[in-house]
Design brief:
The complex is a heterodimer of chains A (268) and B (374).
Chain A: H1 2-21, E1 39-48, E2 51-52, E3 60-61, E4 69-86, E5 91-93, E6 99-102, E7 109-113, E8 117-126, H2 130-133, H3 148-151, E9 162-171, E10 180-187, E11 193-198, E12 208-210, E13 215-223, H4 224-227, E14 238-239, H5 244-259, E15 263-264
Parallel strand pairs in A: 1-13, 10-14
Antiparallel strand pairs in A: 1-2, 1-7, 3-4, 4-5, 4-6, 4-8, 4-9, 8-11, 8-12, 9-10, 13-15
Chain B: H1 3-16, H2 46-49, H3 62-72, H4 85-88, H5 135-138, H6 140-144, H7 153-161, H8 164-174, H9 180-192, H10 200-204, H11 214-224, H12 242-245, E1 260-261, H13 274-278, E2 287-288, H14 310-319, H15 330-333, H16 344-355, H17 360-364
Helix pairs in contact in B: 3-8, 3-9, 11-16
The chains are: A alpha+beta (268), B mainly alpha (374).
Chain lengths: 268, 374
Amino acid sequence: MKKLNKWVGMLAIAAMAFSVQSCEENPPVDPPVVNDKPGVELNVAALWDGQPLTFLSGWFEQPSPKKEYVQFFNFGMIVSKLRLVKEDDTEVMLGDGYQWIDFKKQRTKFKYEVPVGKYKALRFTLGLDSAINHGDPNQWGAEHPLNGNLTGMHWGWAGGYIFQAIDGNYKDSLTDKYTKGMSLHTATDVMVRNFEVPVGAVLGAATLEVKDKAITPVQVNYHVNRFLKGIELKKNSVSHSEGVKEAAFMQQLLGNLKLYSAFEIPAP
Amino acid sequence: MKPGWLLLGLLVLGFTSCKKDPEDPLHKIPSVYKPTPVDPTTIFPVGKFGMPVLPSDNPFSQEGIYLGRMLFYDPILSFDSSISCGSCHKQEYAFAEPQRLSKGINGLQVGRNASSLFNLAYSRKFFWDARQNTLRELVFEPIQEHNEMAMTLPLLAKRLARTDRYIEYFDKAFGSKPNVFDMSKALEQFLLTLVSKDSRFNGFFPGKFSMLSDDEKRGALLFNGLVNFDVVTGLTTGADCFHCHGGALAQQNNPDMGGIANNGLDGNFADKGYGAITGNPADRGLFKTPSLFNIAVTGPYMHDGRFATLDEVIDHYSDNVNYLSPTISPMMAAHGNRQLKLTAEQKASLKAFLMTMTDSAFLTNPAYSNPFKK
């Protein structure tokens, strides 16, 4: 009998524990991620000599004859006609093709549904068609990449968007206490540029394969040091893409993007 | 008692004890309430400013907005019931006040100038030091600050709960008894409705020059022109105000595009501003860049109210920018660190253009006024 009472006592303790425990709601568990459709995730990275670009910390040595040093404060881009290119050269538009990339805010990852297949390149336009560029910026939804209030990439006054805004500071030397501003704003219809970024070093050298029910990562690197290659900031550190001198300077910078292959998709 | 009955009793307890107490207000089933929805497109001038991103869990209702308005003007939100939000944020001054630094209960001084309040739906950072991201969180700060309203939330909850108008309106707006969480949502709704959109600038933007006088036109061109020194006269044709105060809202909404900046006031920072929030030395001396709407009535100016008049502000940007300030905005330092040296005529034109941003309809809109005043 004593043995039986012992068992009943243990059962009673277990029941009490159950009554206390069962009041706690089960913590929410995220359901397992199931990709029921094929897709890609673009991860756009700003790099300086292969290292991640940082903001308001550290000074990067400028690749020019004068050893100047730059520090970044802000870096945003507006792109359009963002599309992947299949092996047979047909294109697949990613979303509606528009995207706002902001490296400082780390708005750099974008998921899209795309058909299964092999893709050899990414194509995009830095900037916008004239009609969109000068259209009503209020036509876009609150969270659309072209909503100027969201991005700060539309100043309205000039009737257009800023396609790329890079702001920061530079110094003549690391011991220089006198910080000077760098403000490189790409805008106006004549500064729109189209890019084709092959997967791997050259077009056709490699492909990205998108499989069913899977998200394929696509790493897109922007080598910012190549954009600024050969630029002596002491002579030129400001451009708003307008006026003879500033427009010519911006043309040179945009030329660097292609000349030095500033955009790159490493082979998988 | 037989052990078997004890066991059975405990098992029954195990199954029944999870039922929520019907009297527990946190698990209260909402009463029947029918808030009157308000379409955001009737609040925001989408054609002028676009549609803002709004909190998805706090839809506008007539009852919610009115409740927020009552709370904004109600001194019972302060410890000694002496001041309300509206005591330092006065409608006729675009919800700023003509004091260098505001005063809280018992005359205690607040550390910064009272910010103006309008078009908040288009902002993503709040307070001079940009420390808050939502209006809902923001409202708790002045209510609890010892040198502002010095209230405690438990005491405030009690006060609200024993006030008939709040018992009625919390139920109407949220189907709840008065509580501080729904209080913050009601205040958020009211604050979001403060929309300034009817100044002459709003009619002019983005370039109907025929609406401006010649003087204002010259000011508009200076405001929106890039700094460019004429090689012959040495005068600049642009003052480049628009980089930080540009667009239809005369403000930069992107915190990283001039929305938070050091405008060259100081070389050493008595008030570290945003840097005190982030702890990053590179953020020291950065403050939120305000919209210039209603600038004629929002003085004194700057985070510490150091400039009493608009003329002093223009003088600062023209002649006294501290380019050695270690965190000065790149967009200001991009001028070659050269003072603009505007002429007296240029300064007057710039001021004339700024005066077009006064929205008298906003300053007198009865929908924003103190509902307790008859």
